[in-house]
Amino acid sequence: xxxxxxxxxxxxxxxxxxxxxYLFSAVNQFLSTTGRAPLFDVSLIGASKDVAIANxxxxxHTDKQLNEVTHTDLVFIPALFGDMKSAIHQNQELIPWILKxxxxxxxxxxxxxxxxxxxxxxLLRGKKCSTHWGFTDEFKAMFPDVNLVDGSIVTDENGIYSxxxxxxxxxxxxxxxxxYTDRDTAILASKYFAIDIDRDSQLSFSxxxxxxxxxxxxxxxxxxxxxxxxxxxxxxxxLAGKVSVGRRSFERRFxxxxxxxxxxxxxxxxxxxxxxxxxxxxKNISEVMYDVGYxxxxxxxxxxxxxxGLTPIEYRNxxxxxxx
Length: 324
Hints:
Layout (H helix, E strand, L loop, with lengths): L1 E6 L6 H20 L6 E7 L3 E4 L4 E4 L2 E2 L8 E4 L6 H7 L3 H10 L3 E4 L4 H6 L7 E2 L6 H7 L4 E2 L5 E4 L2 E4 L5 H12 L2 H10 L24 H12 L7 H7 L4 H12 L3 H19 L4 H7 L5 H12 L3 H8 L5
Parallel strand pairs: 1-2, 1-6, 2-5, 6-7, 7-11, 8-9
Antiparallel strand pairs: 3-4, 10-11
Helix pairs in contact: 1-6, 1-7, 6-7
């Protein structure tokens, strides 16, 4: 029997607690229908018997408290809710417990922004990690010693797992079902829960937000100029001149503030505009390409797929609004 411990932190997301419990309980039923014994013993674990979550909207009655767990094989850290620093502070007493279980041989998996609590344990230092695409800048700032894999759905490194954002964590759950059972059982679970089992990127769902969570006013001015004039040809020298900063200093400050080179930032802004056009208009690929300032079809397609994980046609077919 594999002992699965689903933590119930304060300031956590109800679905990220209920979903793994539901999935592994359902897998037990799948196994039973094929004449095999149930494999997973699933428990909700908390610092107290009853844990209020979602700003007190729900209370979760745990199966065991931290000090009652004598052995576990797999620990789930569900997604947190609200301000990440505050959520980590509220759940400090979970950190030594997670470390103890890992030292005793348990594997540890974070779901979505549960990665913030996992990273706070130090277990991710120097390792790969995934989290919600909308929190990547905050995560990088808080945990610069973690190798955040942008756009990834699942990471697996020596028994430490993490997942991408929101419903992407279902792909990690299926990944672990397959690891502990077999491919056929994981496929059955994916069909039962209507989850695409082999989706490996959240890039197509990400939105480039401009990365202005810094205080470098000249760089913000340059960013705003790029975002207002992305169709035009913009050079580093032009931008540096507009904000009256030397080129070398400008490039260094821009990269430090935005985590992108100037060229990368311009590309991201152009592709974000192309995405919006594909979603809301009937323009063909060439029209959209010219609108955002590209003239080389091959280069545009290559860059678009690199940033979104999909070709322009695939993206348009996936997200275009139905225009009557």
